[in-house]
Write a structure and sequence with these properties.
Two copies of one chain form a homodimer. The first copy, chain A, has about 260 residues and is α+β, with helices and mostly antiparallel strands. Chain A has six helices and ten strands; from the N terminus they run E-E-E-E-H-E-H-E-E-H-E-H-H-E-E-H. Helices cover about 25% and strands about 30% of the residues of chain A. The structure holds a DNA duplex (30 and 30 nucleotides).
Chain lengths: ~260, ~260
DNA sequence: AGGAACAAGTGTATTTTTGACACTAAATAA
DNA sequence: TTATTTAGTGTCAAAAATACACTTGTTCCT
């Protein structure tokens, strides 16, 4: 054991943090400093935000800590979706260099518990943490090569998100508290990567009862102002098994 | 570090193994021996089968190892569904006693990666492993108090299974290779805990294309012999996102 | 041999949900 | 005042879901 250490060298948590802005789904990544022993220059690579889980900490707590340290936000939608533990995760040179600069025991095998977070990107006040020099929102289709197996972790999150939004109404977490029907539709179109029919989308959403229409409307737009809606959280807090309709042949009947 | 140890003291895997027999969904549990230092008698408690993850082992590999050591089966349907890491998991006296009898470092905090397995109970040749003196199938509604947080782990698996069967065709894994429509319906009724309409169920299953009707029929039954079917695995191997229809209001349109 | 018992297997009509589709309304900008 | 832009609305046809009851084929019993 690493006596006196307050972290567990064997378990970490990584957060795939999704945000939505400018009609684009984005991933929050950190840039890590890597002291390069050869060139004496700092090299840099991208990684998912994450940290070792402390010995006295629940997994959810650890993920929430990572999330709130980075974004300044609490009470964010956060869901554990998979754990990764390939003993050969650390193969890239940069990863080795970084571990050596940061860990007491860089050879230790690490299992990582991955979480998916959905946040309103505009609410986040990015505060690069101790390990990172910068945090950036990157469109999900422009994600570069990441540290360790983080690309795999991210891609699994993306698939999980796609499936999730069709089964549980969580898309709202990516929008501001008040949003228009078009914003909501645009979000779903982005996540599902297909076009949805405006009238059918609207009917379905309204019939489902998850939306609370507000009297407030947009102001200052140079077109007919859109009504704002809120997500009806009450409906979905008590139960954890909300389901939406989908089809066995792989197609979905939720929208369109 | 526990030098020389081939196991990772910080990560374990637990398997929630479901079986189906006599119209009942069952859970496979092991009985553990606990040397009781006070009475000098062996005490016993039930637990989910599980083991520490070895340092050179992938998580899936570890779970498969636990599963095959216990049941003698390989290639079983096995899915990771959640990891549990409450640092206060070990509060029961029996758990402490057992850990002390078995672990080099009984105080170490353990994170467990939980897997759900679905097997044809009749195929399993139960071989109690090194830590257990017996393995038993217990109806899911008669599960006793279990070690550690295993009750919570089991209940989460049950909820996950319920949701899973409505989205992906995995129920077949619990049946023999050849099964009748009634067996299949009975399985779904058991898992979903509600009655399904025979004709609608039949139509839906047949239209979905997941069943291959065989010419073989039951023999020796004192009623009209039922046709056997097989699950069409080909359909579902390539994609990992098969979905079935369900509804937003919490009701399901899969059956009935 | 005949009948009882038992689970398998089958069809239809009604209701609900989906999917496709095009114009009007309200605001600002020019 | 006119052009531009996005919001917002309804209907019809097709597909899917639901509710529902009788006949069939086998063994068991007498």
């Amino acid at each position: 054991m690493q006596l006196g250490s307050s972290v567990n060298p064997h378990v970490s948590t990584d957060c795939v943090i999704f945000g939505f802005s400018d009609e684009t789904l984005r991933l929050l990544l950190i840039k890590r400093n890597i002291p390069n022993k050869v060139t004496e220059l700092d090299d840099t690579h991208f990684a998912l935000p994450g940290d070792l889980v402390r010995d006295d900490e629940d997994l959810d707590t650890a993920a929430n800590r990572v999330l709130s340290e980075l974004t300044g936000l609490k009470g964010i939608y956060l869901e554990q979706y998979h754990s990764f533990g390939d003993p050969l995760r650390v193969t890239k040179m940069k990863d080795r260099a970084w571990l050596e600069s940061v860990r007491q025991n860089p050879e230790a095998r690490v299992i990582t518990v991955a979480y998916m977070a959905l946040i309103d990107a505009r609410k986040a006040q990015l505060q690069p943490g101790s390990f990172s020099k910068e945090a950036v929102w990157i469109p999900i289709h422009e994600v570069p090569e990441l540290a360790f197996d983080h690309n795999e972790i991210f891609e699994k999150a993306l698939r999980a998100l796609k499936e999730k939004v069709q089964i549980h109404p969580v898309g709202f977490e990516l929008l501001p508290e008040k949003f228009t029907m078009s914003q909501l539709q645009s979000l779903y179109e982005t996540i599902l990567e297909r076009d949805l029919d405006k009238r059918n989308f609207r009917r379905k959403m309204l019939n489902s009862g998850v939306l609370i229409p507000l009297s407030e409307k947009q102001i200052g737009v140079s077109n007919k102002p859109a009504r704002f809606y809120m997500f009806n959280r009450e409906l979905f807090q008590p139960r954890d098994q909300r389901i939406v309709n989908l089809k066995m042949d792989g197609s979905f009947t939720l929208f369109n």
